[in-house]
Task: structure prediction
Amino acid sequence: MSSTSQKHKEFVAEPMGEKPVNALAGIGEVLGRRLEEKGFDKAYVVLGQFLVLKKDEELFRDWLKDSCGANVKQQGDCYGCLREWCDSFL
Amino acid sequence: MAALRNKSDQEIKDLLDEYGIKHGPVVDTTRPLYEKKLKETMAKAKVTVTKPSPDRTFYREDQEEVTYVTYQTPVSIDYFSCLRPVFRPHVYNTPSSSSYSKPTPVVKSGGGVVKKENTTSSGRLIPLWVQFLVFLILAGFLYFIFTNMESAESSPFNRIQ
Result:
């Protein structure tokens, strides 16, 4: 991931609080809706899953692909976003 | 083979450790993922076990080693055969290289066709068309040099001044 999107920058700049799941980089409307249907309605719930998977990239990518059908780029963007957020705030 | 779904969380965790799969705690949200990973790994392990091989613990290592060796050799050989005729123009007329004994004007197309036939379908680091293109460019360049130099050996296109 050479460059980060605006969404990524905004997300990692502050505590996520009650931000919705589609505030995460890589998660748009469609993926966001699919995650919400599974109960991941807030960004912090996805964060919870990220932490339970021990912040492992491969596991998190696999999980994201299985739960909402994210492609490789979307997986990478979401992972990078959460990892950087954790580096700053966790 | 008991269904993974009926196993307890602890049993799933033990299986993950047994197969050496990196994992976190087995909870509601992670369980389906780990079950899927175990299923894939078990299927792969089953395939390697059916291969006739001596009693060994690490089948995966064995398989990896074999593929690594077979992949390496074709690439190294092909690279040399591709480079050799290019860097030494004299080799064009010796029978050792593919089929460059034909007169120079035919080298460009005839040699190119033979080269393509020799390499049908094998994994390459550099795509075939790139090799082909580089070869054509260099062959054309050398042909240009040949026709513009006074070579006593084989140059039917001698200019009559």
Summary: Helices of chain B lie at 9-18, 31-49, 59-87, 104-118, 128-148. The CA atoms of residues 73 and 142 of chain B lie 29 Å apart. Chain B has a mean pLDDT of 69.
